[in-house]
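Action item from last week, closing it out:
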Amino acid sequence: MENDEKNYSKIVKHYEECFEKYGADHRGVDWPNQYDLDKRFLVMAGLILKKDTPCALLDFGCGTGLLLDWLRENELLHRFDYHGCDISEKFIECCVKKFPNELFFQIDALQNPEKLNNYDYIIMNGVFTMKVDLSYQDMWNYFCQLLTLLFSKAQKGIAFNLMSKQVDWERTDLFHVGLDQLTAFLTKNLGRHFVIRNDYGLYEYTVYLYKEAVIR
């Protein structure tokens, strides 16, 4: 992928423009409504096996800290040593103001992978759903690079969501990925211990990828 930084900076710019327009709610990270976002958080939290809590959790691409809001509202925060990070300084500034007692940090993980610590679990909600005007191949390359890095930083597992190709029509600014292409990449490069959640009524799916086989 040529000009990596230029390419994925378009995605960062898109979300920062949403934040400037709408503020710190769901619209500020380009989710259409809070109800569906709560569904996403519930599904993402399903990655974490109950026997493994409390655990170190990284909210990668944390945006305005809406996952942390959800964990607090549902009285789940005590189960996690929560850290949040984002490539955008604007989002991190917002989170630090909202949550002065929690740890947030700004990082471009592909440029500075050595600065990213290891965690038990890493959640990536919406990190790979929007491609703006990147070509599919550029977005796929970015996805593969970043996912590989983040999986290496997770001791137990990661969760991420992608737009489905099982839809009536595809939006050109979204990243719709076929299951065959995805599973071929995962099994060849990262591992075979994964779960695909396509059961929550949205035009996307969520993947749990574990380091070891688990019985849920």
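Closing note: The beta strands are 55-60, 80-86, 103-106, 119-124, 154-163, 194-197, 204-210.
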